[in-house]
């Protein structure tokens, strides 16, 4: 059975922030920082002018989305109030910030956040 095909593009950004959370190992319960790497994935069944979306537009929107978190203690940022600012939660908050930000038919399908070079979490559309 053949599945429908779709174009996907991604853009990455970085920000540095600190956090702490009680549900993790002892060292993570204390205030500590990360150089987070973020990737957004945009998908479209069609191309406009040969592109899913202009990379510059995605970079701009992603930069705006992470700007308020750079060099901050995430636990002190309002949108993390009442929750642990884990990598999973950060990816969900970024997805929510960016959902609907891109012109159709381009659509945000996933946000992935790396806390370290080998540990990441993502949030977005369920796999088919």
Describe the structure.
It is elongated, with a radius of gyration of 16 Å. A five-stranded mixed beta sheet has the order 3-1-2-4-5. The protein has a single domain, classed as 6-pyruvoyl tetrahydropterin synthase/QueD (Tetrahydropterin Synthase, Chain A). It starts with 6 loop residues before the first strand and ends with a strand. The chain has 128 residues and is an alpha+beta fold. Strand 4 (107-116) and strand 5 form a beta hairpin. The chain has three helices and five strands.
The portion of residues assigned to helices is 10-25%
The helix/strand class is alpha+beta
Distance between the termini: 14 Å
For this structure, what is the CATH homologous superfamily?
6-pyruvoyl tetrahydropterin synthase/QueD
Please describe the biggest sheet, giving its number of strands, its sense, and whether it closes into a barrel. 5 strands, mixed
CATH topology, what is it called?
Answer: Tetrahydropterin Synthase, Chain A
CATH-defined architecture: 2-Layer Sandwich
N-to-C order of helices and strands: EHEHEHEE
Instruction: Determine the mean pLDDT.
Output: 91
Q: At the first level of CATH, what is the class?
A: Alpha Beta
How many runs of DSSP E, i.e. beta strands? 5
Our estimate of the beta-strand percent is 25-35%
Cα shape: elongated
Number of helices: 3
Radius of gyration: 16 Å
Q: Structurally, how many domains make up the residues?
A: 1
| Side-by-side strand order of the widest sheet | 3-1-2-4-5
Low-confidence stretches: none
């Amino acid at each position: 059975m053949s599945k429908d095909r779709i174009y996907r593009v991604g853009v990455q950004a970085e920000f540095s922030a600190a956090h702490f959370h009680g549900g993790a190992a002892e060292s993570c319960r204390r205030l500590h920082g990360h150089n987070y790497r973020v990737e957004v994935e945009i998908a479209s069944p069609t191309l406009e002018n040969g592109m899913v979306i202009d990379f510059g537009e995605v970079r701009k929107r992603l930069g705006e989305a992470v700007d308020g978190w750079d060099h901050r203690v995430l636990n002190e940022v309002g949108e993390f109030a009442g929750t642990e600012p884990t990598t999973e939660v950060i990816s969900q908050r970024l997805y929510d910030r960016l959902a609907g930000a891109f012109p159709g038919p381009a659509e945000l399908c996933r946000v992935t956040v790396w806390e370290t070079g080998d540990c990441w979490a993502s949030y977005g559309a369920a796999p088919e």
